[in-house]
Amino acid sequence: MTNKELMTKQIAIMLEMQNAMNTKVNDNWFEQGFEWYRAIWIECGEMLEHYGWKWWKHQQPDAEQVKMELVDIFHFGLSSRIDGQMDYSDIAAELAEELSEPLVKEDFKQTLEVLAGQAVMYQHFDGTSFAGCMQQMEMPFEELYKSYVGKNTLNFFRQDHGYKEGSYIKEWNGREDNEYLVDILNSLDPSDHEFKDKVYQGLATHYPK
Question: Roughly what angle, to the nearest 10 degrees, separates helices 3-25 and 63-81?
Fold first, then answer.
């Protein structure tokens, strides 16, 4: 399997996961016409704050927070591409093509502005400028996939264990659940076709009985 074929397969998995999460939040999410594009450009603004843009004061980019915002944007980007007509495999192939051709401007801020501009002007998630942001933040696709699957799976796990009802236990033996998640992600192979299931199983193993 080539890198692009693996990427396409993993994007299809993420599309399925995104639809499942959106459905868990709202059974009729697809008919609601949510403005995913607006969520994208607002997240871009939040990301720029983490990166730093003020020339009148010293600012150090917070790379981890920027990457977290990129993962959040990808949630919205995937949601915006699900149209109820195209198969996930076809949508995934389109996105894999875009992510394989990153659009890179002179610096990260300018590349991010292309991503935000596409969302504002055309109500569109632009995979090429998103890939450019990833490249300039030295974030490989494997990291995006691991982080996306991890966050999505943890959200499902929380819901399945009483998050909405207020009975979910967030601290496990003195550590927060997201700390356990990081350990679990680092112990698994993202190319494993059972990756997301093993992430869930890992969380279940550590969850206080």
Answer: 80
- Give the Cα separation of 12 and 18 in Å (integer): 10
Provide the whole-model pTM.
0.87
Contacts for 9 with CB less than 8 Å, ≥ 6 apart = 1, 92
Nearest Cα to Cα of residue 155 among 7, 15, 9, 22: 22
Q: For residue 118, give both structure tokens.
A: 């596409």
Residue 13 CB coordination number (10 Å): 19
Contacts for 46 with CB less than 8 Å, ≥ 6 apart: 69
Q: Which residues contact 80 (CB under 8 A, 6 or more apart)?
A: 36, 37, 40, 124, 125
**What is the tally of helices (H) and strands (E) in the chain?**
10, 2
Secondary structure letter of residue 171 according to DSSP: E
- Which residue's entry shows tokens 């997301």? 196
Structure tokens at 43: 């997240």
> pLDDT tens, 66-90?
998 999 999 999 999 998 889 999 9
Kindly tell me the sign of the dihedral angle through the C-alpha atoms of 112, 116, 122, 126.
positive
CB 72 within 8 A of CB 43: yes
